[in-house]
Amino acid sequence: MNMTRRQFIASLGSTGLFYAFHFTSKSGAQTQSVEEPFTAMVDPGCVVSDMDIDYTDWIAFGPGDKVSVFTGRAELGQGLKTVITAIVTQGLEITRSNLAVVMGDTDLCPDDGITSGSSSTRMVGWGFWLACEKITGDVIARASQYVGIPADDLEFRRGGVGRKGETGNLVNASELGNGKTLIMTINPRTMSAGKKYTDLKIPNVNAEEIITGRLKYVGDLKKPGMLYAGWLCTPYHRTVTKLKSVDAGAALALPGVKKVETVWGRVAVLGERYSDVIKGLDLVETTWSEPNRPKEMPLEEARANAGLLAVEEQKGDINAGLSASDFTYSENYTTHYTCHCQLETDMAVAQVENGGDKAAVWVSTQHSHKAKELIADALHIPPENVRSIGMPAGGAFGGKQANPVNREAAKLSSLVGAPVKLVYSRKDQFQLRAFFKAACIIEVTSGVSANGKILARKVDSYQDVGHGTKHTYDIPHVLVKAYRDPNWPLGLASSRGTSYVQTCFATESHIDMLAHKLGIDPLEFRRKNVEFPAYVNLIDSCADMIGYGKNELEADEGIGLAIVLHGGAQLGAIAAKVAVNRNTGKITVKRLCGAFDIGTVINLNTATVGLRGGMAWGIGYALSEEIELDGHSTKTEYFSQYRIARFSDMPPIDISFHDNHQPGSPPRGCGEMPVIPTIGAIANAVYNAVGVRFYSTPITPEKIKNALGSATREAI
Amino acid sequence: MAKKNFTLNVNGKVRQVTAELDEPLLWVLRDNLGLTGTKFGCGSGECGACSVLIDGEVRRSCRVPVAYAALGREITTIEGLGTTGNLSPLQKAFIDHTAFCCGFCTPGMLITATALLAKNPYPSREEIITAMDNNLCRCGSYLNVIEAIEAVIKAT
Ligand code: FES
Ligand code: FES
After folding, report:
1. Which residue, among A80, A212, A428, would best test binding to B if mutated, counting the most B CBs under 10 Å from its CB?
2. Which ipTM was obtained for this model?
3. Are B149 and B121 in contact (CB under 8 A)?
4. A484-526: pLDDT as tens digits
5. If residue A322 lies in a helix (H) or strand (E), which one and from where to where?
6. Which one of A133, A372, A590, B20 is separated from A346 by 20 to 30 angstroms, measured CA to CA?
């Protein structure tokens, strides 16, 4: 195995200066510093959520004017490495070539939590921002002692310290170390950045490697003596069937096939080349037990069997609120199963040595440290014997949080005694992994006063967790409950936008319907009912960009709006313009305009492409993405059966940024937020275009044709 | 099936490989030749991540048998488009316009766009979309890719 963290840091130079930043939001935690021997540095083990920030990251100076920063988080395409680079190069005034950003290697990096929930920039990014500020003060103090010049006469620049008014540095920060680690505690809630971050437009730091094909993803690695591996796809979902028999004779007769392993009730073929694996898998004969549950899996069945999962939101007295209302209105919405479809399928490379006692696993995952734990578990060895090395991922979107491929590759490597690259095929992603965003039923009832104020809202969400109602509309009486069928045969995935996606489709469609029933313009109705004035700006901005109310629409065109609050503080409003073709049933999204309030935008380039990408997901969810499955198996096998948004589905997109906090306020993240209101905005635009409300996603051409073919313009 | 020796002309170099007749070119490029810039996204010709140029035409290397590619044809992979210090205008434009997030689809996008502009230096937006439409990007970087291509057209 390669270098340990200590060796790595030692290699930076004997006098390297090391900082460990403990970010914590625990009440009472003060911003403070203590010096400890380097060996005492421990991973705190962290829980990162909106309410509880508690993690550690590291910054090391040396050798010379080099700086290294360490985070356990992953580069998934969201641009975190670029964001950290932008922040640290600016914060420490160093050049890009002097900075190394080390990510996701459990031997080198602290466990600062899972890379999910659009949290990396707002936590790790901002953490580094504050840390850089603390560091510059500390380095000046050390330098003052070292060179014997009062701190007031010194300033921090280019990773070192110089005298004010003079050029050239007196000392590099790395020369000020004493072999100890300075552990600093920072409470991001109580410390605000004094130094303002300048918005940047910097290229993705991996750009040149990406466009020349040199960036190595996990699938691009090769180890001496490595075997390729693939799982045999089961005929039924794995939870409903058991392996009865295996005949591997014909597969093993192929020259390239080296092993056929049966493990955890599944069959893997291992070969010299991936094409050997594919051929071998074709020749393995298996029998499986009959599925242990009925084939049909209607959502209504889940609703009938569901038990209360959580009371997601409760305010006032829902019954009193509804009875005090002048008008009440109930609707049911449903959504369909969707799949992450990262372009990079699940893959891992594992090298288990020492008779199965020591493992190095190269992973494409959202949480390397979690992968390490799971691998140790699978091999029954202590976690310290496992190194999990995060590689840049070809997309994750929630589907690579604890992805089983990492421990599976390790297990296969330990069984065959050689390095193994385990590759999931595209079909495996759909049928074997079968890890989908939940289909939901969402029942919404609202009560409104005669003057158009929403007084009460009740939401019952079946099969997902019901997030996404809070702090959008100012409603005194609210009750939101989530229910789930405990015997549902499929694991339910978190996926870009999580349950906000389903909830927001339902509630934003419903808001529109309330407005129409009351004869109020949907924009006015929202303005009147939103919880924060900040929404009004956003709604006006996106409405303005799209030409809302300007009567420029042609026949069967429409405009719709939707708003969202995601991740505690990301606000967004989206306006969609669509055209509906009554003959083909095709909906064309003609324009999307998004107004977003996400704090400081660290890097406009990565933020913009990410926001647009999120809206592409919204288009897919709204119009085409739908996994076909029943209680036994997933039918979807190919991309041609599952349409994610493509070039031809993309409209022009306009984006405006707003910041209702002080300019220079912390970044708040934006990876998932734009997905969410796009769906409701499109559904509302379709209603505006053809006067038909669609109560289920995706709104396919068939649904349009069925609805418009029938003479009535009733809700479908 | 027995393995055979093939001579491939890849990125202007003659390379000898041993593979089965029907082995997809994708795996020969990646595993025999270490040209891992060409990506596997589906294996069924539907995503475009594995796109390469064969005699100037965009081909899905996951669907092209090595035996076909070995018939004296010129193969160009992402590694052959341009290298540091000598990037193609499209590669530069992809950087300038942030035409990717995770970058997994990018080699296929660049190969397809390169073939488009070689045949038609001034495509309309519609022609760009038609040429690129079977290249999938789950990160949704599509508009940025279009902007990058249009920037090259404008500068030509
Ligand atoms: S891998 Fe060849 S088209 Fe997807
Ligand atoms: S940039 Fe990630 S798939 Fe295109």
Report:
1. A212
2. 0.98
3. no
4. 988 877 778 889 989 999 999 999 999 999 999 999 999 999 9
5. helix A318-324
6. B20
- Total domains, chain A: 3
Strand-strand pairing, B51-54 and B57-60: antiparallel
Kind of pairing, strands B74-76 and B3-10? parallel
Coil vs helix vs strand at A31: coil
Separation between Cα atoms, residue A399 and residue A287, nearest integer Å? 29
Amino acid identity of residue A535, one-letter, is: Y
**Element (DSSP H or E) covering residue A493:** strand A492-493
Write the DSSP assignment of B18-69 as a string of letters: EEETT-BHHHIIIIIS--TTSPPS-SSSSS-TTEEEETTEEEETTSSBHHHH
pLDDT tens-digit readout, A249-267: 999 999 999 999 999 999 9
One-letter amino acid at A302 equals A
Where are the domain boundaries for CATH 1.10.150.120 in chain B? 89-155
Domain B89-155 has CATH 1.10.3720.10: no
A477 is in which domain, residue-wise?
302-337+436-708
- At B145 the three-state DSSP class reads helix
Query: Could you check whether the bond before residue A294 is cis, i.e. omega within 30 degrees of 0?
Result: no
pLDDT tier, A31 (very low <50, low <70, confident <90, very high otherwise): low
A31 DSSP β-pair partners = none
Interfacial B residues in 87-146 facing A (CB < 8 Å)? 87, 91, 94-96, 98-107, 110, 128-130, 132-146
pTM here?
0.94
